[in-house]
Amino acid sequence: MAILEVRDVSLQVNSTVILNGLSMEFWEGYVHAVVGPNGAGKSTLANVIMGLPDYRQHTGDILFEGKSIKNLNVDERARLGITLAWQEPARFEGLTVSQFILASAKDKNKNEIDRVLELVGLEPTRYRSRAVDKTLSGGERKRIELASILAMKPRLVMLDEPDSGVDIEAIERIFEAIDHLKKDGCTILLITHSPKVLEKADHAFLICSGMLVDKGETAKILEYFSGKCLPCPHKNLPDLNPGGRE
Amino acid sequence: MIEEQIEELLESINLHRSFDKNTPHIVINANKVLRSQVVEGLTIEPEELSDGVKARLRVEKGYKILQPVHLCFGMLPERGVQRIILEVQIEDEAEVSFLAHCTFPQAVDIQHLMNAEIKVGRKARYSYFERHWHSDEGMVRVVPVAKIELAEDARFSTEFELLKGRVGVIDIDYSTVCQARSSAEMKARIFGRLDDRIKIKEAAVLEGEASRAVLTTHIAVRDEAVAEINNEIIAKAPYSRGHVDCKEIIQGNGIARAVPVVEVRNPKAHVTHEAAIGSVDSKQLQTLMARGLSEDQAVDLIIQGLLS
Ligand SMILES: Nc1ncnc2c1ncn2[C@@H]1O[C@H](COP(=O)(O)OP(=O)(O)OP(=O)(O)O)[C@@H](O)[C@H]1O
Ligand SMILES: [Mg+2]
Questions:
Q1: What confidence tens digit (pLDDT) does each residue in B272-292 have?
Q2: Ligand 1 pocket residue status of A38, Cβ below 6 Å
Q3: How far is B273 from chain A (nearest CA, A)?
Q4: What is the C-alpha to C-alpha distance for residues A162 and B204, in angstroms, rounded to an integer?
């Protein structure tokens, strides 16, 4: 069953079409990937699903468990269990990792902080009282973001380029965290450029210029990465780097 | 009865269980001194007034009081006036730190007026941290006035914090005169909500050679709250150094006004200032809201962080 359905969604910003009649179904408990070249509209799609203020003026509809969430605010969608990990996570001056994770946590228990930090491979004693500010490296910040999401126990999570700026070893921790979310029945939407991340998915969508170009089993979508591009409807071949983008 | 009041006051400031009776302290409810405890070198002479308490605090020459001295000024009733008059004398080479808690857990209409004269002797050290605990409703009017004199080589630091509950009206007026090589650090962190009114004036006169002062004010206002900060450093002596730092965060219809004044009367003195007024970053807000916090909760958390 589809937990989330994007129904004919289009979005224009200042007369530029960013999403163009997208329709997609995300099945409950599956790991879905959304791939496509830079500027394809992947992050925009995630922002629209999350209901961010600048992305509310789209046409079409978004349904969560069969009900339209189009008129709900970000926090109302989050309380239904939808969440997003930004491509570039925000930094919070003066907030500690503990405070940040606890704010998101479903279970407001101090042990929860250590549990989720361990899951993303960050030593709790070293990170608990660090500030979530610019003193954290990009990779550390991304993992703390993921930790806060694990603590939230969402029903549907969108991870925007979870591997960007993260080293090989940390990617393994991130994959483990994804497995953990999946095991708990969470539906996952991975936005990625990397074949390695794409391989984690059960199913994938390829978008280009805001349009759905193809969808299907991961293996099929992976072929785009090995150069077997199908022609796009708008004659603009997806510019996917065969080796994946670092 | 008295024990119950002490319990209630300490509980309102989360000190209930951990509080050790042997630590030097004084607990005041309205105009009654409920309990006090001193240690060698420290004297506290309280005197009950009709609408408050006058207390003389003294640390004798050369004594270093190792444990922080707890001062708990509370008002358990919903209404009333509490006037606190403090005469503090830290004699030469003495050292002390105070942890003051002002708590008004049931406040509906309360005025807390504090008038302090603080003298810090030669090479003495004094640090004072004051945290306010107000109720979420109701009205507290807090008017702390302090005149501070620092002798040669004295060190003085004071910090005022009001982050939880409603501010009501606050009007702080602290002024310090610094003799040679002494240093003064004054810090205030306040978060105003609804129709709270915040007024702060911190001033330092650098009278003696190589004296130093840093005045820091971090204020956030949301809803319809208004803040006005007038911090001032006057540098009269050679090699004196001063810095005024005002940071304000506004959200909603809050209004903030920061006026740092620096006056330099000696060519060898150096005073700097910075004033920044910003607002809550929308990405931070959206991140927390995407974790299920309401906009209100998210703004509060971000601001607590910025003020910490
Ligand atoms: N708020 C906005 N205002 C104007 N243009 C926007 C806005 N948000 C996105 N865009 C534009 O829409 C297009 C799609 O952007 P988006 O960030 O969704 O791409 P993406 O697929 O995530 O790319 P990348 O792989 O580089 O992250 C880009 O051309 C971008 O500049
Ligand atoms: Mg993107």
A1: 998 888 888 999 999 999 999
A2: yes
A3: 21
A4: 51
Instruction: Specify the 3-state DSSP secondary structure of B297.
Output: helix
| Biggest distance spanned by C-alpha atoms of chain B | 61
> Between chains, do A94 and B287 touch, taking CB under 8 Å as contact?
no
For residue A158, the distance in angstroms to the closest alpha carbon of chain B comes to 11
Whether B291 has its CB under 8 Å from any CB of chain A: the answer is yes
CA separation, residue B140 to residues B77, B81, B177 (Å): 12, 10, 30
State pLDDT tens for residues B3-40. Answer: 888 888 888 887 776 778 889 999 999 999 999 999 99
The answer to whether B289 contacts A90, with C-beta atoms less than 8 Å apart, is: no
According to DSSP, residue B258 is labeled: E
DSSP A71: T
- Pull the structure tokens for residue B49: 């007034």
Domain ranges for chain B: 2-280
Res A33 pLDDT > 90? yes
Lowest-confidence segment of A239-243, B174-178, B253-257 by average pLDDT? A239-243
Its ipTM equals 0.91
Which residues of chain A make contact with B297, given a CB cutoff of 8 A?
A: 103
pLDDT 10s digits, B250-275: 998 999 999 999 999 999 999 999 88
CB–CB of B281 and A83 under 8 A? Answer: no
Tokens for B200?
A: 């702060």
Type and span of the H or E element at B284: helix B282-289
| Average pLDDT, integer, range A219-244 | 58
* Cβ pair A83:B289 closer than 8 A: no
Question: Where residue A236 falls among pLDDT bands split at 50, 70, 90?
Answer: very low
A40 lines ligand 1 (CB under 6 A): yes
Taking Cα atoms as reference points, which of B151, B178, B189 lies closest to residue B233? B178
Ligand 1 contacts CB of residue A239 (under 6 A)? no
Q: How far is CA A183 from CA A106, A115, A156, A188, B21, in A?
A: 17, 16, 13, 11, 52
Tell me how many residue pairs between chain A and chain B have CB atoms under 8 A apart. Answer: 66
Coil, helix or strand for A122? Answer: coil
A interface mutation test: which of B280, B289, B300 has the most A CBs within 10 A? B289
Q: What residues have CB less than 8 Å from A105, skipping those under 6 apart?
A: A112, A113, A116, A148, A151, A152
Tell me what pLDDT residue A243 has: 43
